[in-house]
Amino acid sequence: MELSRRTLVLGTAAAGVLASATPSFAAAGSAEGEFQESLVFQAGDDGLSVFHVFGLTTTVAGSVLAFAEARITPHDADPHHLAVRRSRDGGRTWEPLRYVRRSDGVQSFINPTPLVDRESGRIFLFHAECFRDDGNTGGSPDSSRLYVVTSDDDGETWSEPTDLTGLFDGDPNGQTLHMPGPGHGIQLADGRLVLQVWHRRAIAFPVAERRYGVTVIHSDDGGASWQAGGGVPLDGAYPLNEARLIERPDGALVVLGRYASGGTHPRIVSVSADRGATWSPPVLDASTRPVNAIDTGIVRLTGLGAREDSRLVFSRTESPTRRNMTVSISYDEGMSWPYSRVLTEGPASYSDTVALPDGRIGVLYGREHVPGVTTSFSRDIVFAAFDLAWLTGGADTGRRGPATRLSFEVESLPMTATPGLTVVPTADPAASGGSVVEVRATDYGQYLEATIEITRGGQYDLYARFRHQANGGVVVIDVDGTRLGGPIDTSTVSVRAFRTEQVGRVALGRGRHTVRFTVVDKQVDSSGVRFSPDLLGLVLA
Q: Could you please report the per-residue DSSP string of 68-90?
């Protein structure tokens, strides 16, 4: 079938897959592919308490650089060095521990975040020096200064620091803490260098008044100068801090990051269509399971070149607590993650993810606890390197993506509806293709029916992505007249959100089939029965 020409999630590649928010199989489930892991940092190395908050990059020369806060004592605002180890063989072996910046025993250097200019080869390492206000006896800082150092010899030596804090002068939100990344910044297809920076007010403010938020800075002259870009609109319902950036095939930027206030939540997502100058209102995106408030890693492997399959790889703890470090791959710009592997089933912490020069994926992450130290920190910081075949159980070898995946933007499908029901395509930057269908039902029993067409028969798992809204109704889903799944509650109390739902398994022959969404109820606290299907997906079982 024809897909929308506006499709943002697919770029110039084949149709993407929509799949479950839970892992497809465990790490021990397949012998396909290549996997290796090495120890990079360990609590106690060089007399240090812990290593925490990681940055990861590859260089033009082909090295892997792994950065971490080398914490003399463990708390966030305590004295820290910035440490680095380099691998020249794709993460199999590592050169000795070195320091990019050394604390004088008082200085607290934090959030090492690398960014490489692929044209010049220069490596930038952004970081902050943080401070406590008078009277703050806790472990968290109140303010900081943003710095950058550079290397022109593959990370062997580093320049004196340049202070970039002035980029945030005149901040109307009173944010005094300015923290790069963490993880890594990105270079856009047109050469622009972009770094994400998160901000808040002093820790003494109540959580709801700290004004967590993310902006970007950028350079169009190879890092000779830096300018402040725009920021995700501040909203207390979306307290965004530690974040990552990806560039989409249509040139848009996406920021996704941590829900700063703790608890178990989806990632927070915002989109910029103008290279970071302005950003869409944030949403909660549950394309993967809502997890512990923690920093996560994401990287694009392919998808910006002509006729390439889009591939993003995402690393995070897959648990309401800091456990189960998991990596997943998406073929539809992060709308879904059909293949996952568990790197460790035990305690885990922060992670960062990069594409290695040989086509493999690298993940730097923390695992196990440090005895006698808070469970927020890891004992071992390890580097896992693996290929696509290992990640997907052989379904994707890199030559082309899996053939057993189909996705359909609902607004582009042939549709029919019951009388009294109105169907309105509505622009939404966070939706697949930048638009979502808003189905304005007025009574129970009304339905929207969409026609899909497949070219290969078999047993399929059906998934549906919905935009959730305050007046959302409860729907059920039928395929070719047979009930497959539901009820699915598409309401929220007050926040903007997207969620992927696993509907069920169905046998489908080659040809056309109908998928019907019927509203059957309303959420208890809602007066509406509207619903907004965004994307339908089929995965061959």
A: EEEESSSSTTS-EEEEEEEESST
**What's the mean pLDDT when you consider all of the chain?**
90
Instruction: State yes or no: pLDDT of 19 exceeds 50.
Output: no
Could you tell me if residue 36 is inside a domain?
yes
Rounded to an integer, what distance in angstroms lies between the CA atom of residue 512 and that of residue 219? Answer: 50
Percent of the chain's residues with pLDDT above 90: 76
Are 367 and 444 part of one and the same domain? no
Whole-model pTM: value is 0.91
* CATH value at residue 282: 2.120.10.10
- The domain of 309 spans 27-392
- HEC string of 137-192 equals CCCCCCEEEEEEEEECCCCCCCCCCEECHHHHCCCCCCCCEEEECCCCCEECCCCC
The one-character DSSP state at 414 is -
Closest CA to 437 of 450, 418, 454: 450
* Same domain membership, residue 251 and residue 182: yes
Weakest mean pLDDT among 5-19, 66-80, 396-410, 496-510: 5-19
Q: Bridge-partner residues for 272, per DSSP?
A: 253
Are 375 and 423 found together in one domain? no
Contacting residues for 480 by C-beta, under 8 A, at least 6 apart: 513, 514
Stretch 10-33: mean pLDDT: 38
